[in-house]
Amino acid sequence: MSQIRGRFKKQAHELVQKYTQSISYDWRLYDYDISGSIAHARMLGKQGIITKAESKQIIKALENIRTEIKNGKLDFKPELEDIHMNIEARLVAMIGDVGRKLHTARSRNDQVATDVRMFVMEVGALCMDGLQELQETLVDLAEKHVDTVIPGYTHLQRAQPVLLAHHLLAYFEMFERDFHRFAVSLIHTSVMPLGSGALAGVPYNIDRQAVAEELGFNQISQNSIDAVSDRDFVLEFEFAASLTMMHLSRLAEELVLWSSSEFDFIELDDAFTTGSSIMPQKKNPDVAELARGKTGRVYGYLMALLTTMKGLPLAYNRDMQEDKQGLFFCADTVLTTLVLFAEMLKTLRVKTENTTAAVNKGYILATDIADYLVKKGEPFRTAHENTANLVRYAIEKGKSFSELTLDEYRKFSSRFSKDVFDITVASSIAARDHTGGTAKNQVLKQITRAKIILTEEDEQDTQKG
Ligand code: ARG
Fold this sequence. Notes:
The chain has 18 helices and six strands. It is mainly alpha-helical. It folds into three domains: 14-104, Orthogonal Bundle (Fumarase C, Chain B, domain 1); 109-148 and 163-358, Fumarase C, Chain A, domain 2, CATH 1.20.200.10; 366-423, Ribonucleotide Reductase Protein R1, domain 1 (Orthogonal Bundle), CATH 1.10.40.30. The strands form three sheets. Strands 1-2 form a two-stranded antiparallel sheet. The radius of gyration is 30 Å and the shape is elongated. Bound molecules: arginine. Arginine binds next to helix 6. Arginine binds at residues 22, 26, 82, 108-109, 112, 316, 318, 320-321.
């Protein structure tokens, strides 16, 4: 079996094979393709569409092909286009005419849709595991830093003091939403297309449910045209991957900034940094930078497939073969990035002496001073204005808040009294004592909640097996 050219008088143009082949990348689907074919062959035998003996023979040969491919023993041929044809050709070479019966009641269109769905089901579950691992690491690190204070930033300007644990747990929340996005995308993915044939269904007494159960699908598709036409499940996966990468890229950026000499809040472990080829003093945060950089390509593939699918008439169109390279890149990238980030966070060192120094510099307690005036009866806008004038005065005098005298304070509001000196970084943090605030007991509650969420998700995992 070479290319399917029975209908044609001429050979294809010399460039066509290279242009249309997908075996150079879709060989990665071989395991799913073989499992799909085995389930299909078993069903054909049970339903009497082929004999039980034929079914057995096909299944045995397919298992041997699986081992061959695993051991790198099968030479894929580009003239056979894709993984489906390469496996089928090998089957026919092994068992002859019986092998030619496997493609009964099936088409490459429902076959490829099944393979890709199985791939997404597997990598989607791995992404969820990777997110959980990273979340656990974040919670562990947060637990170590419930007393470490850092400046919180807006516009990358020091804004208000926060606990480092609070800052880290913000990422826990983002990754929790990502986890659920993957979970939802998997509900949509776990729908089996086999039995749709090319597009209209197949004229045999098939048992789709049995095939779906064997392959681990939760449902079977309800419309054969939809089943072979859509790749929205790939897009949903890529969207979930894109948002995960977006969150990772923000964490990456903070790791880059925090490990710079300018911030000097953390030191990344040597295992996740590299040296410069000409500047011996440097320790570059390459892993974090590449995570930031690769995010662009993940988004690109999401946009590429959205564009490929736009305006395609029903049902299958060859354009859809373009779904795979992007999908593989997105899956590989998000999975590896998740693992690397968990490891990177486990090994990073926080330089608490520097974070403390950074919090004590600047006028980071200005909001607390304004709130102090509000609590003494000043309207918030007035308090804000008076505090702004106070800050300008302090800057001009080159003094910090604690170095100003009460008389100096009182130039800006008569409501200031001695207790203004009770405003400290610690009091600022302790005051934000409500759900979602940075007070230590609230952050401890977040940690408890995070641990419960992770344990519940773990338990659901074990129940599923
Ligand atoms: N390699 C093809 C793909 O990835 C498989 C389906 C081919 N179907 C067809 N009718 N040419 O989409």
